[in-house]
């Protein structure tokens, strides 16, 4: 079985370059016997830099690159010559990438904009040449500073997808089908649970050339926050969504009960997720007549915008887009 191209977690060893040593050179030429100190400074060691790239959506290109090593700075030279700086190592990452220290779990930085650059591991400073240490009482200093050591650390890069709307629901609730209908995305669709094993993104066209991004998250089951099903591996992608679209099939015996289970799992994972705006979509409603739909509407959670939709027939899809756009811009 081929491995997935969607990689949202990598661990790398990031090593910045050492600073170059300062020079302890004393000037001499055929006309000058004792020209004094003229040693230049050492060059800075190379940084390891993260750069945001909106054309990337996965960390696949870093999966097998375990060691990222920047170049060392060059030593200073005579005639006050400063050593060359070490070449920086630039890692291009998708927007929404977070860097954490592998040992402590400490948050280091976050990339959210295209072209944004953040120094992940700074290079060592170059040492000062002996020209800096001359004085009236020490006119020929024969010592210079060594370069500062670079930093070596293990770093975890974690991707959290940036999307406007996150689709939340049990397996087989019709999330991928909706995404395939409202956008150009082509997620895998089949009539069995956990068809979607990785998040999918799609751009949904709206009126007047407007659009928003929708993310299809793999199905959540009761106990997901404790590791059941696909567990919490993909729940982190919901954290970045502006709003959540809960999807429950009309075939469910208890729509409100399923919605509360999903809400409970999100609360266990991160209580802040409950602060996001929510809409409830009852899917596969092409199987319902108007009378049955009205009866089911009475059992839905109160105070929550709800709409009956069908991705196959297109029923109320436009109304759903209107609700989402209104929630995103209110």
Task: List low-pLDDT spans.
Answer: none
- The succession of helices and strands, N to C, reads EEEEEEEEEHEEEHEHEH
N→C terminal distance: 45 Å
Mean pLDDT: 85
Strand order of the largest sheet: 10-11-9-12-13-14
Contiguous helical run count = 4
User: Which secondary-structure class do the elements indicate?
Assistant: alpha/beta
User: Tally of extended strands?
Assistant: 14
Give Rg in angstroms.
Answer: 29 Å
Q: Which strand-content bin applies to the residues?
A: 15-25%
Helix content: 10-25%
Largest sheet: 6 strands, mixed
Oligomer: single chain
What is the general shape? Answer: rod-shaped
Word description of this protein:
- It holds the Pfam family MMR_HSR1.
- The chain is an alpha/beta fold.
- It is 13% helix and 23% strand.
- It contains 4 helices and 14 strands.
- It has helices at 175-182, 255-269, 290-297, 317-329, and strands at residues 9-15, 48-52, 67-69, 89-93, 97-101, 107-111, 117-121, 152-159, 165-169, 200-205, 211-216, 243-249, 277-283, 306-308.
- Strands 10-11-9-12-13-14 form a 6-stranded mixed beta sheet, sandwiched between helices.
- Strand 5 and strand 6 (107-111) form a beta hairpin.
- The chain starts with 8 loop residues before the first strand and ends with a helix.
- The model has no long low-confidence stretch (mean pLDDT 85).
């Amino acid at each position: 079985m081929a491995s997935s191209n969607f990689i949202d977690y990598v661990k790398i060893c990031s090593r910045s370059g050492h600073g170059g040593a300062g020079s302890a050179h004393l000037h001499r030429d055929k006309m000058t016997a004792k020209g004094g100190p003229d040693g230049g400074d050492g060059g800075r060691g190379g940084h390891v830099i993260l750069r945001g790239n909106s054309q990337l959506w996965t960390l696949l290109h870093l999966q097998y690159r375990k060691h990222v090593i920047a170049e060392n700075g060059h030593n200073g030279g005579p005639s006050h010559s400063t050593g060359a700086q070490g070449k920086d190592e630039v890692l291009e990452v998708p927007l929404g990438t977070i860097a954490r220290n592998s040992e402590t779990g400490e948050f280091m930085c976050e990339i959210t904009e295209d072209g944004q650059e953040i120094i992940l591991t700074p290079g060592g400073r170059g040492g000062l040449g002996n020209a800096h240490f001359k004085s009236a009482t020490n006119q020929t200093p024969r010592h210079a500073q060594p370069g500062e050591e670079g930093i070596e650390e293990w770093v975890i890069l974690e991707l959290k997808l940036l999307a406007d709307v996150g689709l939340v629901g049990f397996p087989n609730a019709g999330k991928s089908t909706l995404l395939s209908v409202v956008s150009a995305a082509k997620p895998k669709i089949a009539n069995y649970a956990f068809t979607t094993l990785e998040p999918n993104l799609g751009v949904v066209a709206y009126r007047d050339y407007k659009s928003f991004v929708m993310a299809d998250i793999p199905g959540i089951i009761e106990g997901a926050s404790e590791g059941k099903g696909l567990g919490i591996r993909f729940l982190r992608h919901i954290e970045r969504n502006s709003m959540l679209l809960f999807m429950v099939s009309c075939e469910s015996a208890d729509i409100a009960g399923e919605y509360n289970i999903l809400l409970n799992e999100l609360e266990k994972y991160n209580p802040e997720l409950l602060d996001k705006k929510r809409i409830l979509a009852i899917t596969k409603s092409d199987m319902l007549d108007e009378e049955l739909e009205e009866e089911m509407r009475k059992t839905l959670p109160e105070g929550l915008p709800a709409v009956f939709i069908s991705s196959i027939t297109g029923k109320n899809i436009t109304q759903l887009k209107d609700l989402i756009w209104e929630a995103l811009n209110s």
